[in-house]
Amino acid sequence: MSSNRVSAPILAALIFLCTAGAVVSASLGKYEDPRPVDGIAAWQQVYSVLVSPRCINCHTASNYPEQGDNRARHFANVVRGPAGTGVAGFRCVTCHQKENADSTGVPGGKNWHLAPLSMKWQDTNDQPLSSAEVCRAITDRARNGGLNGAALLKHHTEEPLVLWAWSPGRGVDGAMRTLPPLNHDEFVAATKQWVDAGMPCPK
Amino acid sequence: MAKFQLTVNGQRKEVNADPTTPLLWVLREDLKMTGTKYGCGVSACGACTVHVDGVATRSCMLPISLLGDRPITTIEAMANDRVGRVVQDAWVEKDVVQCGYCQSGQIMSAVALLKETPRPTETQIEESMGGNLCRCATYVRIREAVQLASQRLK
């Protein structure tokens, strides 16, 4: 009898330990390969920049660019044109120079143009695509201009129009344009972490 | 103030201007070339359109410091330009002009369009000329004149 009384607490403890162990084991199983989870967290950081106005305004699904933090349709009846550079007689460079014109409020950068429709990050109602949809687009080499992970990282690190997002200059009201939510170093670091993790996309 | 060497309609010009001065005001005030018009001052109407290195450009928003050595062509040179002459003749034949204020910019955009796309469709004309506003609403005659010039350029 006394041995039964002693063994009951031990049995309860064993049951508790086994249950806890099973839970821990299941949790560990879920994170068996930590890379996809780290990669997706990094991607979410990248995505937060891509859908900020400085980037997404020129990744439209429509026949026109957008402008401003409210992502309004570009004024003056500006249209995309066949190559994303406007149309004959009315090019992006009709106003946008190779650098910002802070005295007149016109943003500028080398080869100012719209991203191709294959790299649209919005729907046709001008709403940002989901994180998963943008991720699928940006990792699809048939749509992203044939860029692999290393080339995407280089694009985010060096492309002049990408860099412009962190030096967007002043608007016509003289105020500095707002910046993306991460600084450029953080953006590149997040991109590298995502690329190193195999460029996982959210489901 | 700084000195800038410009090439305007094939001629070398030197101006002394604040680097932030828009090209429009250098043309109008310093060089007394008043064919290029001030409309809105924010690139929204196209009245100030000139060609910079052959590209239709809104001169009201282009600081002179960003011009570099690119040549400038203005409405004053269109009478001696092959396409420009044809476009101006079409403008006269179609009696496009009402008040006329926007028309130098309209012609500069039309010439840029036809030099790059000699046979524009109606859509191409609408899109290319879409940034040039006309308070007299001469848009139908502008389109007809561009089409007439296109036919004459064949």
Describe this structure in words.
- The complex is a heterodimer of chains A (203) and B (154).
- With 203 residues, chain A is mostly helical.
- Chain A has one domain.
- Chain A is 43% helix and 4% strand.
- Chain A has 7 helices and 4 strands; from the N terminus they run H-H-H-E-E-E-E-H-H-H-H.
- Chain A has helices at residues 2-30, 34-50, 53-56, 131-139, 149-158, 160-164, 184-196, and strands at 66-67, 72-73, 86-87, 90-91.
- In chain A, the strands form 2 sheets. In chain A, strands 1-2 form a two-stranded antiparallel ribbon.
- In chain A, a hairpin with a 4-residue loop joins strand 1 (66-67) and strand 2 (72-73).
- In chain A, helix 5 runs antiparallel to helix 7 (184-196).
- The N and C termini of chain A lie far apart (57 Å).
- With 154 residues, chain B is of the alpha+beta class.
- Chain B has 2 domains: 2-76, Roll (Ubiquitin-like (UB roll)), CATH 3.10.20.30; 78-152, Orthogonal Bundle (DNA polymerase, domain 1).
- Helix content of chain B is 36%, strand content 16%.
- Chain B has helices at 23-30, 82-93, 103-116, 122-129, 139-152, and strands spanning 2-8, 11-17, 49-52, 55-58, 72-73.
- A 3-stranded antiparallel β-sheet of chain B has the order 4-3-5, covered by helices on one side. In chain B, strands 1-2 form a two-stranded antiparallel sheet.
- In chain B, a hairpin with a 2-residue loop joins strand 3 (49-52) and strand 4 (55-58).
- The N and C termini of chain B lie far apart (47 Å).
